[in-house]
Every structure is written in C-alpha cells, then in structure tokens.
C-alpha cells in the first residue's frame, strides 16, 4: 500500500483579469497543486475553497508535464456555488501565474474536463487565449424577450434578436439596439432568477474604432450567484466572437464594417460592469482568440487544516 502523501500548504495568487488598469477586470484566485496531491481531486475540498475565496471563479492547476517546452497543466474552474465548464478570465489569470513560474515559456497548454485542450500565448505584458466558440441558435421561447426586458428595465422593442447557447444549461444572448444605454440598465434579479437556467448575455454593437475594429459591448448575469453580474466574462466573449463574425449577429456587424471581410475584423470588446474590463477578440480557424491583461493583486498559501 503506497504511503499517504504529506500535505503541504498550497500557493495561490489572486489576479484581476481582462483589466485595463490594476483594480478593474474580473478577479480570480489561482491555486497550484503539486502532482499527485489528493486534494486536487477532492470535489468537496475544491468547492469549499472556492466558497472561501468567494470570487467569481477559483482556478485549480495541477502539473501534467511542467518541464516540457510548452508546459502542460490540468485546469478546473469553480464558482462559490459550482464547477463550471469554461471560464475565460480564470484561464487568463492561470496563464498569468504560470508565465511567471515559466519565464522562458511563450505558450502554455491546459487540459480541461469539458473543453479539451486550451492554449495561452505570451504577447509581451498581454496574454492571448485560444478558446472554443459555443454555437448560438435562434431562440424559440416567445416569452423570453419580455422576461429579460422586465429584468433590466428596457423596452422589449429595443431587442434586435435573441439566441441561445449551452453553458451548463440554456443561456440567452440578447442583442440590443446600439442606442440603448446598456451600461445604465439596472438588473432586477427577482424577475429572472427562476427563468434563466444558466447565464444571460446582453450585448450590442457600438460602431467601429478609429483603427477599424468592430466595437461591441456586453453585460453578463448569473442569477444564482450572490452578486449576479459578472465583471468580465471571457467565455461569453468567445461566444460573441462567433455570434458577430459568423453567426446570428453577422449582418449587423457587416453593415458596421462595410465591405471588409468580416472574419478578418477584430472586435474591441467592452464589458460594462461596475468594475469594467475588456479585450480584443479575433476569429482564428473557427476559434476565438482573446487578448487581455492580468494584474496580480496578492499571493499567499492555503494552510493544511485538520477536520
């Protein structure tokens, strides 16, 4: 019988991801396990620690082949309430941490439970993520527009279209007219929490930037969380990259950029939450490449606690 491994304190870092300034963006805690640590597969432990951090997501890293030219780690994401299938900002935070531990590496690989192998690339002080794009289908629930309009306090006539994709459950993408002041809408959780199984993405186009990028805004809500608005949501922006450049929102995006080939146009993405944040999104070989910055705010150790 193999000996029981000796447990040691676990290093962690907290990173503000997709943040234009140090105190913006979305916070994620990143916990690094040694290989073979039994806590890395203990679901109750992982969930309890995520609840202790009480941030939007906690990322857990376990080395698979850390000495390779492209270091490989397994990666899982937990909110304070549950494990999620994909989290962009916690992946960027994880890459920020690991690039600090692997200064010679220009690329990282993450093995995930539900989204295959994800890759991160170093671009100076920025990180570029390669993420899958969820397929957004036309909405068939005729009641959904009125429900979302009531929860956010806008006129249902301001909705251009609604799509739905799978993010651990049906998740609406609601595209609004450009003239709606999306940042000032006030969310009323009580009108939505039992009607949206997963998350709600509300988005709009806002013209183009001076260098020709397509400008887009979004806000993202998860009604089951204590704070229902997510500050910056990389997985949602991966989905919106496909939505605007090849999917349901393509015609609106094409009108905005004129006769340029839409698949070659970058998206200047802004999440209009209280903390705020953003990134640049591109479509590359059917996947979303998101470029943003992370800022480490603090680090420490998780003690070994007996129960």
UniProtKB/TrEMBL annotation:
SUPFAM superfamilies: Diaminopimelate epimerase-like. One of its GO terms (molecular function) is isomerase activity. InterPro entries: Phenazine_PhzF-like. Pfam families: PhzC-PhzF (PF02567). One of its GO terms (cellular component) is cytoplasm. Keywords: Isomerase. Signal peptide: none annotated. The active site is at residue 57. Belongs to the PhzF family. This is Phenazine biosynthesis protein.
């Amino acid at each position: 019988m193999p000996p029981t491994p000796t447990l040691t304190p676990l290093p962690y870092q907290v990173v503000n991801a997709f943040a234009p300034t140090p105190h913006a963006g979305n916070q994620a805690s990143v916990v690094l396990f040694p290989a073979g640590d039994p806590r890395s597969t203990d679901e109750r432990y992982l969930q309890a620690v995520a609840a202790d951090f009480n941030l939007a997501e906690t990322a857990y890293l376990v080395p698979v082949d850390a000495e390779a030219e492209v270091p490989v780690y397994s990666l899982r994401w937990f909110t304070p309430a549950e494990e999620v299938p994909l989290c962009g900002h916690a992946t960027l935070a994880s890459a920020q941490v690991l690039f600090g531990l692997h200064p010679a590496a220009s690329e990282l690989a993450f093995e995930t439970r539900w989204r295959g192998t994800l890759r991160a690339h170093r671009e100076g002080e920025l990180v570029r993520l390669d993420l899958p794009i969820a397929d957004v289908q036309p909405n068939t629930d005729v009641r959904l527009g009125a429900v979302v309009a009531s929860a956010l306090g806008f006129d249902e006539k301001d909705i251009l279209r609604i799509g739905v994709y799978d993010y651990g459950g049906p998740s609406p993408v609601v595209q609004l007219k450009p003239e709606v002041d999306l940042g000032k809408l006030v969310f009323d959780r009580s009108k939505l929490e039992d009607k949206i199984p997963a998350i709600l993405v509300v988005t709009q186009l806002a013209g183009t930037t001076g260098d020709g990028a397509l400008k887009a805004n979004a806000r993202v809500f998860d009604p089951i969380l204590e704070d229902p608005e997510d500050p910056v949501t990389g997985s949602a922006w991966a989905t919106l990259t496909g939505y605007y450049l090849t999917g349901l929102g393509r015609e609106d995006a094409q009108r905005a950029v004129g006769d340029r080939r839409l698949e070659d146009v970058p998206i200047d993405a802004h999440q209009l939450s209280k903390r705020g944040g953003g990134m640049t999104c591109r479509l590359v070989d059917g996947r979303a490449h998101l470029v943003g910055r992370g800022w480490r705010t603090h680090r420490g150790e998780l003690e070994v606690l007996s129960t």
